[in-house]
Amino acid sequence: MKTQVPLAGYTTLRVGGPADKFVEVETEPELIAAVRDADAAGEPVLVLSGGSNLVIGDDGFRGTVVKVATSGIRVDADACSGATVHVAAGEDWDTVVQRAIAEEWSGLESMSGIPGLAGSTPVQNVGAYGHEVAGTIASVRVWDRTENAIRTIFAAECGFSYRNSRFKADPDRYVVLEVAFHLRLGDLSAPVEYAELARVLDVEPGSRAPMTEVREAVLGLRRGKGMVLDPADHDTWSAGSFFTNPILDTPAEVPAGAPQWPLPDGRVKTSAAWLIEHAGVSKGFTIGAAAVSTKHTLALTNRGQATTKELLTLATHVRSQVHQAFNITLVNEPVLVNCTL
Questions:
Q1: Which of the residues 241, 271, 310, 319 is marked catalytic?
Q2: Cβ neighbours for 83, distance < 8 A, ≥ 6 positions apart
Q3: pTM for the full model?
Q4: Which residue among 142, 162, 167, 311 has the highest number of C-beta atoms inside a 10 angstrom radius?
Q5: Any catalytic annotation for residue 293?
Q6: Is 207 designated active site?
Q7: Which of 14, 141, 163, 319 is catalytic?
Q8: 320 belongs to the catalytic site
Q9: Which domains does the chain have, with CATH numbers?
């Protein structure tokens, strides 16, 4: 157990103050014990994963931060049912994707290059380029802090929706221990649903492509938007997309000219990046040492010495401009700890 540990270096935005207490855990029993002990002592707990979808206040965290560093991958596979891959929460997500491609487990390749750890993927229902982890998750093993028990929650019970889940909706209850993915076998990708990716691959939407080619295409697209971590590139000092794409009740609410994607329930999703750009917020717009990415308006970045206050002032400005222009309120995607927007 360490005290007064600066947390900025544990996040991809590189902002945030110190933790009162900090412990790194490498095994599942250690993870459970650390959370259980803090709960028993009545101390606030922050379970820290890869820090890629997190904004921590300048004052830090008044409680115990439990840094997840568990590891291990177990595989059950056969030609008929495919591969069920059990991944410890502390495994690096992109390393898992790379192994899946190498082992010819299909379904994760379009989510290449996403920073963070495997245990966070079901919480946020992580997704990119037409696919979400909800489409491949079989179950999630968790420590239930309310029941003081290990539970297995199957996919149908996870409450997955766009960038949401029961784990995100009840963050003080569940600690993800392991995620099980069910993946088909073969060297071809899941159907390429995203038009931009299909164009880069030169395939028809809905068709399949070699997983290695899909990964390289996705990484190329992400690099072009500053969405692949690079310590030398301040455009990647971000939490990825800072705002979710708004979901509107009817197509009539979508601003003229804005992209729209119909949803099964009759609602429609539109592009937060389009709204930001057309509300007059340009790439590179800066407040203090926080700036809109020079590559992609949906990423808010730390240009080197930004504070959380500066970052959230920038986010507030962006959200206000969009609301004034279109009467649409953007919702932040990162989790905010000891700070508000």
A1: 241
A2: 75, 76, 77, 103, 105, 182, 183, 184, 185
A3: 0.93
A4: 311
A5: no
A6: no
A7: 163
A8: no
A9: 2-68 (3.30.43.10), 73-223 (3.30.465.10), 234-337 (3.90.78.10)
